Amino acid sequence: MTNQKITIEYNDDIVRKFMIASILFAVVGMGAGVLIATQLSFWQANLNLPWTHFGRLRPLHTNAAIFAFVGNMMFAGIYYSTQRLVKARLASDFLSNLHFWGWQAIIVGAAITLPLGLTRGKEYAELIWPINIAVVVIWVVFAVNFFWTLAIRNEKSLYVAIWFYIATIITVAMLYIVNHLQIPTSWTHSYPVFGGVQDALVQWWYGHNAVAFFLTTPILGIMYYFMPKAADRPVYSYRLSVVHFWSLVFVYIWAGPHHLLNTSLPDWLQSVGMIFSLMLWAPSWGGMLNGLLTLRGAWHKLQTQPELKFFAAGVTFYGMSTFEGPLMAIKSVNALSHYSDWTIGHVHSGTLGWNGFMAAGMFYWLAPRLWNTKLYSKSMANMHFWLGLVGILLYISSMWVSGITQGLMLSATTDGGTVLANPNFIDAVIATKSMMYTRAFGGTLYIVGFFMLAFNIWKTARSGQAVNGTVEVFVEENKNGMSLISAFLNPPVLYSTFIVLFIAGWGFGGSVMGLFSLVCLIFTIIAAVIHLELGENSWATWYNQLLANPLPFSILVFLAVFAGGVIEILPTVILNKAANLEGARQIPYTPLELAGRDIYIREGCYLCHSQQIRTLVGDVLRYGPPSRMGESIYDHPFQWGSKRIGPDLAREGGKYPSLWHFMHMQNPRQTSVGSVMPNFPWLYTQKTDLDALPSDLRVMRILGVPYIEQPADVIKKSALAQAQTIVDDLKKSGAAAEPDKEIIALISYLQKLGKSELVVKTAQTGAVK
C-alpha cells in the first residue's frame, strides 16, 4: 500500500476559545478569593446580603479557580498538544464546540446558583444535581472527542503527555460519579446516598483526588509537552517519566483518608492514608526533577523567555507542595495543621503556584503562535512573574504562620495537660488577624499580575491574526498494537499485581498471613528485578506495544485507580450501618431540625465550623469526648468540616440557651467579641420552607433514616409545634420571633447537635437494647 502525503490543519480555534475563557475566569475566581480573604479581615465586607457573604462566595471562589480557570486552561493545553502529538485534527469540530459552550454554561450555572445558596454542601462538589448531570454529559463529550482523535491519529505511539490526559479523563469520571450519587428532593435540592463516615471517606477520596487528577495529572501532561517545546530540549528521562506516571496513578488514589486523621474514621484507613501519602514523595519529586532537568542547558533562556520563568517556578511549587502534602499527612503533624490556615496555604501553593504559573507560562508561549505574532510585552510578562511570585510567597508564608499559631494556641495546655492554656477560641482568631491582612495583600498582588497577563495577551492578539497550525503527514494504516489478552498476561502486569496483593496481605492479614505475604513479596520483587535485568528488551518491547493501542492502556489505568477506591470505600460502606454499630448512635432529626440543617448547609456554616471532635487532648478538653462513628450515621451530607474559623459544634446542643443563638446569628459580636463571622439578618425575615419537608423525609427514609411515614399536614404541624416552643422560650427572654422564620429552624438544629442514644448489643443475639 502506497502512503499518501496530506496536509492537516489543526483546530486551534477551540484552543483560543478555552484560553480566553481561562484568563477571564482566572480574574473572576481570584477576585472572589481576594474578596473573601478581605471578609476574613473585615466582617463588614460581607455587606449583610445573603448572596455576598463568605459562606456562599467561598464555594464560588473554589469552583471558579478549579473548574473555570484551571479547567479551561487544561482543555486548551490538552487540545493544542494532543493534535500535534498524534498528528491529527480533533475528531469533531461539533463536539469541540459543544464541549466549550457546555462547559461555560456549567460555569455560569454555578455562578448563579452558588450565591443563591443552592448547594450540596460538599467541598469541591457543591453544585446541585442538574448541573452535576450536565458536567457528566460534557465530560463524556470531551472523552469521546479525545479518544476518537487518538483513534484517527497518524502517530503510532502515545507520547507521555497523552498518558496523563488519559488518566485524567478516566479517573475524574469515576471520582465525580461516585461522589455525586444522590437522590433529589426537588429540582434544586438532593441528599447524597452516603452518610456520616461513609460520606466523609467518599468525599475526601474524591476531594483529594480531584486535586490529583484535575489539578495535577493534566498539568503534568502539559508540563511534559510545553516545557520541552519552550526550552527546545528533550525530556530529561523517558524511563523516569514511565516510573513517575504509573507510581503516581496507583499511589495517589489511596491517600484521601489523610484528610480525616485523628477522627472517628477507622484506624486502619487512617494508617493507609498516611502511608500512601508518604509514598507520594518519590513519584512526585521524580516528576519535578524530570521537569526541571529538562531545562538543563537552557537556563540562559530564562532571561529572554518569560514563559520559562513561569514553567520553572511552577514546577518548583509543584515539588514544594508535594513535599508539604505528605508531611502534613503524618499523624503528629496533622494534629497541628488540620483545621488550621496551614492547610489553606498548602492548597494555594498548589493552585496558584503550580497551576497558576504553569497556566501563565503556557499562555505566554501559546499566544504568539495562535495569533502569528510576537508577544506584546516581555517586560510586562516579567513584571507579572515577580508580582505573582511575591504575592504567592506572602500568601503562603502568612498562612504558615497563622496556621501554626492557631494549632499551637488551640492545643496548648497547662497543669500537666489537664487545663487549656487558651480556653477562648476567639483568642486564636484575634491573634492571627495580621496574617489575614497579609494574605489579602498577597492575593491582591497575584491577581494584579493576572490583570497584566490579560492585557498583554489581548494586545498580542490585536497585533496579529488568528491562525491554525498545519502539518504534512504520511497517512498509513495504523497497527492495532497490543491486544487485551497480551496487555494483561505479561510479566510487568503480573509482577505488579502480585506485589500489590502481597503488600495488602502483609498489611491487613493476620500474623501467619502477614508473614507468608511478606516472604512472597520479597521473592516476587527479587524475581521481578532479575527478570528486568536478564530480559530488559522484553519489558521495553511490551511497553512500546502497549503505547500503540489506547484501549488496553486505558483499562490498565482504570484498574490501577479503581483498586484503591474499592479497597478503601467498600468495607466502610458495609460497616457503617445502624445494626453494626455499638456505643453512641445519632438520634434522627425532627422535621424542623432537618429544615434547620438544610439552612445551615445553604449558608455555608460547614466552611467555618467542624462537627468532629478529634482524639486529641486539646479537642477533648475544649469540646468534650471524641466523636464516634455512630454520632453522624444519619448525616447526609456529613459535617465533619475541614477548617475551623469558629469552634467545633459537635456538642453544641444545650450548651447555650436559644437566646444566645438568636443574638449570635443577628450580630456575632454581641456574644463573641472579636468574631469575624458575618451577620445573617435575612434569617429573621425569610420563612422556612416547610412544604419541602415531606419530600425531604421521603428521601431520608429511602436512605435508611428511621422516619415513619406521615401525611404532609402532620409533618408541617409537628415542625410548627416544635418551632412554637422555641419562640415561647425566646419570648421569656425578651426576644420576639415568629415560628415560621428560618432562624427558629436553625436554632432547633443547633440545639440538637451532640444528642445521641446509647446502643448496646447483647452478646448472644446481637440485638440492640
Q: How would you describe this structure to a colleague?
A:
With 769 residues, the protein is mainly alpha-helical. The chain has 27 helices and eight strands. It has helices at 13-41, 54-86, 93-113, 129-151, 160-179, 196-213, 217-231, 238-252, 267-279, 281-293, 306-328, 331-337, 341-370, 378-411, 425-431, 433-463, 484-488, 491-508, 511-534, 536-546, 550-575, 591-602, 617-623, 658-666, 693-702, 712-732, 742-752, and strands spanning 4-9, 182-184, 190-192, 413-414, 419-420, 470-475, 583-586, 756-759. It has a two-stranded antiparallel sheet. Strands 2-3 form a two-stranded antiparallel sheet. A hairpin with a 4-residue loop joins strand 4 and strand 5. Helix 6 runs antiparallel to helix 21. The protein is globular, with a radius of gyration of 27 Å. The termini are far apart.
How is this structure best summarized?
The protein is mainly alpha-helical. Helix content is 63%, strand content 4%. It starts with a strand and ends in a 10-residue tail after the last strand.
What key attributes describe this structure?
two-stranded antiparallel sheet; mainly alpha; about 775 residues; single chain; globular; 27 helices; 8 strands
